[in-house]
Amino acid sequence: DAGVIQSPRHEVTEMGQEVTLRCKPISGHNSLFWYRQTMMRGLELLIYFNNNVPIDDSGMPEDRFSAKMPNASFSTLKIQPSEPRDSAVYFCASSSGTGANYNEQFFGPGTRLTVL
Amino acid sequence: DAKTTQPNSMESNEEEPVHLPCNHSTISGTDYIHWYRQLPSQGPEYVIHGLTSNVNNRMASLAIAEDRKSSTLILHRATLRDAAVYYCILRDFGNEKLTFGTGTRLTIIP
Predict the structure, then answer these.
(1) Does B21 touch chain A (CB under 8 A)?
(2) Do A48 and B94 make contact, defined as CB atoms within 8 angstroms?
(3) How does DSSP classify residue A26?
(4) Three-class DSSP category at B98
(5) Residues of A with Cβ-Cβ distance to B4 under 8 angstroms
(6) Inter-chain CB proximity B102 and A50 less than 8 Å
(7) Tens digit of pLDDT for each residue in B47-103?
(8) Other C-beta atoms lying within 10 Å of the C-beta of residue B2
(9) Burial category of A70 from C-beta neighbours within 10 Å (exposed 0-12, middle 13-18, buried 19 and up)
(10) Can you give the pLDDT at residue A113?
(11) Does the CB of A43 have a partner CB in chain B at under 8 Å?
């Protein structure tokens, strides 16, 4: 299994531009999570999906951020317009099971975003 | 969410056991205790989790206090590759969310 796949691995853009981060979860996993990590705020959950449906988006910073999961094998996190304070490493993770049958979250390698 | 408290940093000698403590005095009966670690420049990876009983796997052991208000992650024989930030996280039974704190930065001394 290739694990969780994220693209691009690095993104450098200018303030005001649209940024799209992509994630392919592990096949068979029914939950997908988007996290952001910065030195100041640590690792924060932005949003998570279960069976392609957004369950909790309370961590999404503001309207400039949006996430979609059109099918079980693909998700995007979009920032429009981007700002320098969005610079961070964005991780995608996937998992299967719920409750007592919950399994571990598998994290991707992350996308390092720099907004100039 | 119930919170956890961990030391900011710890050091240990290579090839010796490491005990990483975690306090969670407000834990509820439906909270699972999860441990993840993050190696430098990588995403977090699962280490172990438990509810009430001690747990063992190929990576580590988890010792849970009888009152569940604290737990200890045990690495039986630390290697340089175990240098990482270790996160102790409480997850409610009915919820898939993981809330990461600041964790413990473990340094292994050769």
Answers:
(1) no
(2) no
(3) P
(4) coil
(5) none
(6) no
(7) 999 999 999 999 999 999 999 999 999 999 999 999 999 999 999 888 888 999 999
(8) 13
(9) exposed
(10) 98
(11) yes
